[in-house]
Amino acid sequence: MSRATVELDFFGMEKANSGKTQFQKFLDRRRSFRGIQGAISKMNPELIKSVISSGSTNRSPVDWRKSFSVPSSPKEDRSSPVSSLPILNPAFMSSSSEDGPDTAPLTIFYNGTVSVFNVPRDKAESIFKLAVEGSSKNIESTDSSKISNPSSEQQNLLETRNGDLPIARRKSLQRFLEKRKERLTCASPYAW
Amino acid sequence: MTSQPGMSDVILGCVVPYIDDPKDRDAVSLVCRRWYELDALTRKHITIALCYTTSPDRLRRRFRHLESLKLKGKPRAAMFNLIPEDWGGYVTPWVNEIAENFNCLRSVHFRRMIVKDSDLEVLARSRGKVLQVLKLDKCSGFSTDGLLQVGRMCRQLRTLFLEESSIIEKDGQWLHELAVNNSVLMTLNFYMTDLVKVSFEDLELIARNCRNLASVKISDCEILDLVGFFRAASVLEEFCGGSFNDQPERYTVVSFPPRLCRLGLTYMGKNEMPIVFPFASLLKKLDLLYALLDTEDHCSLIQRCPNLEVLETRNVIGDRGLEVLARSCKRLKRLRIERGADEHGMEDEEGVVSQRGLMALAQGCLELEYLAVYVSDITNASLQYIGTYSKNLCDFRLVLLDREDRITDLPLDNGVRDLLRGCEKLRRFALYLRPGGLTDVGLGYIGQYSPKVRWMLLGYVGGSDAGILEFSKGCPSLQKLEVRGCCFSEHALAASVMQLTSLRYLWVQGYRASKSGCDLFAMARPFWNIELIPARRIVMTDHVGEADVVEDPAHILAYYSLAGPRADFPETVIPLDPLAAGVEL
């Protein structure tokens, strides 16, 4: 298989590479990220490129740890360009390094560009979900890696979400609604 | 005859024990030293609204013969997952004092506090022979091992209450101990806990041994397994919990005790609902919060309950259900309508409550005393109706959900004003809206027209600092204020606190912070503790292991205390020390 030479811009990497130190990505309305959705969206663009190129030359996974210093937590990397990375999803990393044979190529056609990833099945499904949701959700860019709390930051936090403190749910009801969801989506309601 | 004018001690001694109301007792204790001491000797119950406002030592020195104590810890916001788990509210120092010195104490109620197994053991060992009531209400930090000690050593318990506590479950032995050691239990409650290892045979044993068993609220437990329990619990009046996991037809064998009049069956659906019909007309209280009924089901059930006094449900009841309620339940006193699912695909079809339902309710249920409701739409007129008709209302709470972009009739200034003027008995008031929901003028109305209100929750109200400043010129009785998502500056908040003459407790989340956090010092004064919970990012994992990261803006918590600043701050809580900052008091 020939080397993948197409430049991927699925995640708006062009913008990221043009001088911004942070890789800004959308979060959903509740500012949450789940699994691969979060991991990919916040990955070092260099990392993503390496996956593409390694995926097309050889099926075996790249050991990213050799290529880059991938931070395990945002605190460690304030100065480097990848300083904005939140916790990288370990599930993503381990699956790529272990399950060579379990991954399959995922080809994405977007806006005139084509790119190929080697991903395991469940991650592929998450990406599909991501694509579906990405088109309907609000897209907010935000600085997602700061943990501490100087007052000016409080100011920023409040300003960006004035009117956006979500109405908090009562714990007991939250738990019940989760159980209700299970019962309603379960195929056989009369379990045992 | 006495040598001084006024009542003799003997007469006073006979009269004072009959005075129970805490406010009256407060007044009695302020008259003179003699009356203070008599009150101290004879006061039976104390509620400490925040455990850090005083110390166990002080309590003992004043009320040595206390029989009943209620202690509250974490801010109310903890029920909504907004407070760090390790915030505080440890019962240990209190339990130790109780064990040593409070020899008359028979009733203990801890609410939103951290309780350890060792605390339960100390309490059980020292007070087990006399303890009649133990309530661990929305508490955390203990396991079933602690409950085992309680079951073994507190054999005089009439009430064991664990509702909504987070309990580490090792086994179901504790219930067995309770079953074999106790014959006087009247109230057993582990509702909304996740205890699954309890055995229904132990429940049945309790029902057989405890002939006065009147109220039982449990966690999920198959209803079909409880047939024996229901048969044995012959004087049962209240039952909540259980679970329906089998074919609906099989539940026709379930026969409920004859006096059952307060009921809440978890996961009850349309097909199981008919088992309630035979005694629906006896029902005084119905809990449908955790049922699986739709709007039509609500209508069908409610119309059969003409004696209903308390209803709790989700907004799936809909406006239509409220209209049926208004027509059928003329004795309704308390109504709570919680927010249902709004996740896509999980919502209830007709599950919206709006001004239409509220107006019907106000006109139909004239005895309403408590109304808490999440609405999807609202008008001034509907609030005016409540002011006109709900003359017995003491507690009103309205939350405007945020799903609809357009609300029929905002701002609600006039409606709120008319509601407050009409509901003259109002003591507790909550209004949670959105930007534009209530102007500064409306906020001023709240201050002006709530003479008796002691507790308020205000969310997304007002438009500027002027609003809160005007508000705080009024509210003469306001003791506890919670504010969320408002645009007020630290400076305005501090100034407002200084104007609210009865205020003893303030909680705020979502405000305009100053750069240094120092504007809050404008409210620095003796005995006033100020604490900050700085903005955090919380990772919450739900029960299927999905992680959710939630931004949690900073909180301010301020309260009067006779005990000085806390000594047990976790990392997430920062005290503001005016002395350290060089602020002059």
Description of the structure:
The complex is a heterodimer of chains A (192) and B (585). Chain A is an alpha+beta fold and 192 residues long. Helices cover 41% and strands 10% of the residues of chain A. By secondary structure, chain B is an alpha/beta fold. Chain B has a 21-stranded mixed β-sheet, with no helix packed on it. Chain B has a two-stranded parallel sheet with strand order 5-7. In chain B, strands 22-23 form a two-stranded antiparallel ribbon. In chain B, helix 5 links the parallel strand 2 and strand 3. The longest helix of chain B is centred in the first third of the chain and has 11 residues, at 117-127. The interface between A and B is large, with 40 and 57 residues. Chain A: InterPro entries: CCT_CS, TIFY/JAZ, Tify_dom. Chain A: Repressor of jasmonate responses. Chain A: One of its GO terms (biological process) is response to wounding. Chain A: Belongs to the TIFY/JAZ family.
